[in-house]
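Memo to structure team: turn this sequence into structure tokens by end of day. - J.P.
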Amino acid sequence: HEVQGLSVIKPLVGPGFGPSDAAVLRPRYTSYRGIAVGCGLCPDWTEIDPYWMAIRAVDEALRNVICVGGDPERTAILDNFCWPRCESEEAMGALVRVCRGAFDAAIAFGLPFISGKDSLNNEFSMSADEARRTGLPQRIAIPGTLLISAIAQIQDVRRCVSMDLKEPENCLVFASAPVESLGLDQAKAIHHQAAHWIRSGKVRSAHDVSDGGLAVAVAEMCMASGLGAAVSLSMRTYPHSLFRPLSSSYILELRRADALASGFPIIGRVTKQP
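Reply from structure team:
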């Protein structure tokens, strides 16, 4: 993100250095066109279902580039498989399911895989004596993991958005259509709605709801900005745990008139008090 000093949005943003969703590069000084680079990684879903691990990883990578102003119609993705040996039916079956999940998400969201890599056979073995001495299994394998990287075009880097809150009394809205409960079509729709509002110039800050859930996402926006947030949730608006990671979900900061016009539920406001 720092090669030749061409970074527009860095991995840490705002006066409090909060975690950006993606980095933005400006490849040429003579143009305002840019490239957003983000990632999606959900290894905690491996044991639940590798199929949904893949879908959520693609979903997260797409959200991350959208949050900074990337165009979902001009986004490509890459896969990086980190997997144990595939000699057992369980390991091979998990690999098949993760490939199917990546395929279904890429087709549904219109994201071409342009490259990738695989690292199979990630296992360590030791002698029986060494296993007894350490108290560990004779063979140790990593959990199957899929990393998705996304690269998106940005027409004008001067209109990029960062995740730090910007102005007291602005509203926070919640745009969400969790893919595992509402399906790929509704998830795609929410991605495009969020992208439209972000690229319209009306969104002051944007952050996706990933690790740590809504509570951590709002806290990160506050810490990055030095401002605060007053949030009020109803079960109808947010029927989830505050700390549950959600797919296909965004927090957007908008001025009140824009927040009301967006149609997204308003969940809070920005405060001057940190």
